[in-house]
Design goal:
Elements lengths: L31 H19 L7 H6 L5 E8 L2 H12 L7 E9 L4 H10 L2 E5 L5 H10 L3 E4 L2 H13 L12 E10 L5 E13 L3 E6 L2 E13 L2 E2 L2 E3 L3 E6 L9
Parallel strand pairs: 1-2, 1-3, 3-4
Antiparallel strand pairs: 5-6, 6-10, 6-11, 7-8, 8-9, 8-11
Helix pairs in contact: 4-5
Length: 255
C-alpha cells in the first residue's frame, strides 16, 4: 500500500470505473459519501457545460445566465440575401444577450459549419439551402441546432421570439433516406416515374419527398408509387434501385 508517491512515480489505483483523462486532477476526500457528492456535483457541471444552444432552449439558458451571446453560422442561397439577414439578426440583441453572425456564406450547410458551431456553441441557420448528409449526421451526434427557412421574415421572427421565450414548439424534420435519379420513364397518361438508386436510408411509399436540382428545391410533394422490377413495394433500402412516382410532378432529370 503506497502512502506517498513522488512526481513521475507510477502507482496503481483501484476502484476507478473508467479511464481518467490525461492531466486530470485527483482529489482526496475523507470518505465515500463525500466522494459521491463530489462526483454528482461534477456531473451536473459537465451536463450544463455540454448543453447545446438551440432556439427552443435559448430563453431558458439566457434566464439561467448560461448564455451571454448567440453565435450564428448563416448559409444562404445567394450573396445578396446574407447582408439583410445579418443586419436584421444583429439588431435583435438585448442587454442580456448579444446576437452575432460569426460566419456566413452561400451554398449548402457543410461539416465545417457544424464544426464551427460546436466550437463556438452556436446554431446554424440556412436560408434557401440544403444540408449535406455528413453535416446532418455530425449535427445529430453533437446536438447542434440547424434551422432552415425560405422566408426572411419567418427567420428573423423565430430568433426574436426565441430571445423572448415566445417561440412555439417546432417540428423536427427527419430525413428517412436519399436517392439519386438515374433514369426517367414514361407511363402513358400517368406521366413519368423516376428510376432511382437509393444512396442512404430508405425510400417509402406515401412519405413526403423533396426533389433537389442544382442545389435548389425543385418540388415538394409525396411518393405516390414505389416499384421494384414489376412489384409494388412499401419501401426500398439503400443499395437498391427502384421506380418512384411523385404526386403532381413528372419533370425528372438524370442526376
Amino acid at each position: 500500500r503506497v502512502r506517498k508517491a513522488e512526481p513521475a512515480t507510477p502507482v496503481e489505483i483501484l476502484g476507478l470505473t473508467s479511464v481518467p483523462q490525461v492531466g486530470g486532477g485527483l482529489r482526496v476526500v475523507a470518505g465515500e459519501r463525500q466522494a459521491q457528492a463530489l462526483i454528482q456535483k461534477r456531473l451536473e457541471e459537465m451536463q450544463q457545460e455540454s448543453k447545446s444552444v438551440s432556439l427552443s432552449n435559448l430563453y431558458d439558458q439566457i434566464s439561467a445566465g448560461q448564455v451571454k451571446e448567440l453565435n450564428i453560422i448563416l448559409r444562404a442561397d445567394v450573396q445578396g440575401s446574407i447582408e439583410p439577414i445579418r443586419s436584421s439578426l444583429e439588431q435583435l440583441g438585448t442587454e442580456e444577450v448579444r446576437v452575432g453572425v460569426i460566419h456566413s456564406g452561400t451554398g449548402n450547410i457543410t461539416e465545417s459549419d457544424v464544426m464551427l458551431a460546436i466550437a463556438s456553441k452556436g446554431i446554424i441557420i440556412g436560408f434557401g439551402v440544403g444540408c449535406e448528409p455528413g453535416a446532418r449526421r455530425l449535427a445529430d451526434v453533437e446536438g447542434v441546432s440547424i434551422r432552415s427557412y425560405d422566408v426572411i421574415y419567418n427567420l428573423v421572427d423565430d430568433v426574436g421570439k426565441a430571445l423572448k421565450g415566445m417561440l412555439e414548439p417546432s417540428y423536427v424534420e427527419v430525413v428517412e433516406g436519399r436517392a439519386e435519379v438515374r433514369a426517367s420513364f414514361s407511363i402513358g397518361k400517368k406521366g413519368k416515374v423516376a428510376g432511382v438508386y437509393v444512396i442512404e436510408g430508405k425510400v417509402s411509399r406515401g412519405v413526403s419527398a423533396r426533389l433537389w436540382r442544382q442545389e435548389q428545391v425543385e418540388c415538394e410533394s409525396t411518393v405516390s408509387s414505389l416499384r421494384r422490377f414489376k412489384d409494388d413495394v412499401k419501401e426500398v433500402a439503400a443499395g437498391y434501385e427502384c421506380g418512384v412516382g411523385i404526386t403532381d410532378f413528372s419533370e425528372f432529370q438524370v442526376g
